[in-house]
Amino acid sequence: MARSKGSVLIHVLVIAVITSIIAAGLLRMLLLRHTLISRAQEGSAAKKSAESAMARLVSSWNSVNIVCSNVSGSGYTCSPASTTSPGTCSCTCTSPGDATVVAALSGSLCQLTITSP
């Protein structure tokens, strides 16, 4: 009688361990999925913010028709800054908390690059 009680106890413990391993695996998969979704959303929000900041900067440049100019409404400071039209297209523009925008010539085109903060 004592042997069968011990055998039943071993079976119950083994089943409990197997069940807990399966539950831990399922929980890990769910948490990993949540983490991946969260990271993707953070990345999308950062990209949208950077693109918005660049659009604000380009809009202010278009309003004065000078690339790399320090326009007060944009919140950006460009170095070195241009003061005459059409501008130099070789500067780095920074704004606290926003993405850094780098303007550089690429052949005959002015190429803008966004660097997230």
What would your notes on this structure say?
The protein is an alpha+beta fold. Helix content is 54%, strand content 18%. The protein has one helix and four strands, in the order αββββ. Strands 1-2-3-4 form a four-stranded antiparallel β-sheet, with helices on one face. A hairpin with a 5-residue loop joins strand 2 and strand 3 (100-106). The longest helix has 63 residues, at 2-64. It starts with a helix and ends with a strand. The mean pLDDT is 84.
Total strands: 4
The ordered H/E elements are HEEEE
Low-confidence stretches: none
Read across the widest sheet, the strand sequence of neighbours is 1-2-3-4
Q: Decide which structural class fits the backbone.
A: alpha+beta
